[in-house]
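re: ur question from earlier - yeah i can do the single chain one, its not a big deal. heres the input i used so u can compare w yours
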Amino acid sequence: MKVSWRGVFPAATTQFLPDHALDLKNTARHLDAMIRAGVHGMIMLGTVGENCSLEYGEKLDVLRMAIETIGRRVPVLTGVAECSTKLACRFAADARKIGVDGLMVLPAMVYKSDPRETVTHFRAVAKATDLPIMVYNNPVSYSVDITPPMFADLADEPNFVAIKESSENVRRITDLKNECGDRYLLFCGVDDLVLESIILGAVGWVSGLVNAFPGENRLLWDLATSGKMDEALHLYRWYTPLLHLDTHVKLVQYIKLAQQECGLGSEIVRPPRLPLAGKEREEILAIIHRGIATRPGKIMSV
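and the output i got, formated as tokens:
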């Protein structure tokens, strides 16, 4: 399926059973719920999907389930996050055989590569596949920054189509435009910067909180991209305390807890992550419950 690089692409969670085995049935149910809410694409095995906590074969099982569940309703991308370039190339090839429509490629995990090594890694993965690629830049989480000049260097690789910009520096949208023109399609990768990113030229949103609030997420996108900025801003102010949960080191736990409280899944995470406990859990639940109590059905008429 040809990827239309526009709109809301959930970074989908991976559901687990109480013994931490894959829960493919409930992962599939959740994917279906987000598609019915109107998302435009799906990204499996990103940071929120706990890619690095899954074994290689489990990742392929998740992708097979996603392809079967989603069919041709929306394009399916997979994260590519491996510790070596060779393994990333192998995974890109195996994902292609399963039938994914595109890749979201991360720097090599664990080792913090320098700019030359980073560019070499991405070029190698691009040459290992004919699938279109979204390059995921998240120096906050992975300590590897793909700067606008580096993207200009990578511009001759035809498989690179889009950038998920997650530096938490919204200036990067403009810097990328100035450095690379329209060479790349830009996606916001930080939930609580999405409205700003749209204004500056982002054409897509890789979202985490969409796992819990898919309807509201799609509504915000529609309002912002149709020029209804007053309504979008009103909704954004409601959503922002929840969107802040996407920018913490425990974003996976926070998002899964929100997903659970909205009746869309379980908070179970795979160790070394653990479910929230004590005061931290109470504080995050308070944010989530306030959001649920005041969600758009109530606030859009204010």
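The two ends are 41 Å apart (CA to CA). not sure if urs matches, ping me
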